[in-house]
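User: quick one, fold this
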Amino acid sequence: MADPYTFELVSPERLLISEDVESVVVPGSEGDFQVMANHAPVLATLRPGLLDVVLPGGKERRIFVRDGFAEAGPDSLTILARQAIDAADLDKKALAQEVKDAQEDVADAKDDAARDKAQEKLDSLKLIQETLGL
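Assistant:
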């Protein structure tokens, strides 16, 4: 069993997680890396992907993150992510419906600004589906 350390996950809206963990695999822009207690100081940018979080006792959580930064040190890891969604909270059917609705929004857009906004939402939803293998 690894020594626990503090992990915080922050999105623009709120603090999503603040708890002790054993390890976190982070999807860095230069490749995935694992953070455990006593990690050397690191600052990294994120790529869209999954955080694999191991809690004390071995329980695991998977969290989709998109855009942001990770700051690791000997006794903590802080991730600032533009978007973060717990994989356990995702409903495959609801996500598929959101993708369909977004595709319709792109097709029905009345101007370039509306089409660009709808396309950005569609791309984000498809990225979530792709990353989670849905």
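User: anything notable?
Assistant: The chain has two helices and eight strands.
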